[in-house]
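Chain A, query sequence.
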Amino acid sequence: MPSSDSKSKSDSSQVSSSSASAKSKRPEDRDILLKKATDWLRKKDPITKRLIDGVGPCQLRTIGTPYQVLIKSVLGQQLSTKVALTFERRLIALAGSKKLPSPERILEIPNTALRKIGVSQAKTETIKRVAESYSSKEITDAKLRKLDDSNVLDLLCSLKGVGPWTAEMVLIFALDRWDHFSINDLILRKSVEKHYGISKDNKKEIIQFLKKYSPYRTILSWYLWADVDGGEGWG
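Chain A, predicted structure.
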């Protein structure tokens, strides 16, 4: 999963499709749909064609349910993919389970135990808030799947400690939304600067520029990331 930098809510809301949830993509159709998306992107301009041809077929995949990806993303805030995975494994071991623990199980784990495995105080409190919200049904996976992108971001960002980048990871890696660019991801902005010549610090210009790649901005994001590190963490 890519790493984050800043957490400006106003930025993220401008780089996401306002349409409702994408239609479910059956596994047997996914590669066909990804090829259709990449073929469409290749025709946009020579730079994008060169980027896609240099990386090869898109391998973007979901990595869990919205709840699971939300927990993964909180653990991974400001960390590399490798370090985030280490904390995920520690949490699973602490809970005595084979996968990320349920909201109810997380609520049973003392904060001190989470701190002992290296989870910061702020992340510990955020994980507990996520668990409480799911346990009380204030947030559910089913509810998130019915919301459009902007409302998903609004709902998740209403939880203290969950910023736009964290919520965006749920959009991309759980809800499988194909028209979102994580403007808060520094590596993606650096890749835009490398390929398209737009300063990584000029978020407004990047947002405006990327509009022409709708409805496949997530797919373009995967290629921009893959060009940097082979797509590590991008499904």
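The domain at 32-62+178-230 is CATH 1.10.1670.40 (Endonuclease Iii, domain 2). DSSP finds 14 helices and no strands in the chain.
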